[in-house]
Each structure stands twice: as C-alpha cells, then as structure tokens.
Amino acid sequence: QVQLVESGGGLVEAGASLRLSCTTTEFTLSYYAMGWFRQAPGKQREAVSCITNSDDTPYYADFVKGRFTISKDKSKTTIYLQMDDLKPEDTATYYCATAHGSSWFMANDFGSWGRGTQVTVSS
Prior knowledge:
By secondary structure, the protein is mainly beta. It contains two helices and ten strands, in the order βββαββββββαβ. The strands form two sheets. The protein has a six-stranded mixed beta sheet with strand order 2-10-9-4-5-6. Strands 1-3-8-7 form a four-stranded antiparallel beta sheet, with no helix packed on it. The longest helix has 6 residues, at 26-31.
C-alpha cells in the first residue's frame, strides 16, 4: 500500500509563496515517478509537476513553468513543491501522487494519491 502524506497548503495573497511537502516510503520514492496534481471545484484534475525516480528529472505543466519548483530529499523520503508568485487561478486542492513514469504522470494517469492539501490564493 502506497503511503503519501501531504502538508503545507494554506490561504495566501496573490504573489505569495507556499511550499508543499509529501512524505512517503523509501520504496515508493525509488520505484515511482512522483509529483503533484491539482483539482479545482468543477474542474478536471490536472498534472502540475513530477520528478522521476531514476534521475530526478523534473517536469512541469506550462501553466506553472518558471513559478513552481519540484525537488526531492531522499534522506527524508519527501518531495517538495515550491510555489512562487501564486495566482488566484492556482487555487485548488493539491494531491501528491505516483505514476509509472513521467509520461504517465503528465498525462494525468496516476497510480496512487494522498488526501490532498488545499491551496487558496486571494486576489
């Protein structure tokens, strides 16, 4: 059973920053590509960013490129999503998730995901 525990969401103003964390097991971190997708009310879920298990290559959706940074700390079995210059349209529930690889992840084909953390950006 894949365990994914997210934290770090909150309510911020436009232009502010937040950092999301997702803690998992060493096996999950080494076996799957991991990252974040988001889902806003009434909208489909969309991949935001992922990082590969093999060589830690990051991938980003176009709408967050230059603003969000994904990283991994293997010693803490945790991945992070640093979100800068947040915009109201970034408001959503953010889920930490796994996938068989980056192509699956960025195509919204997720294997497991956590309970999510809410990010709300006011204008």
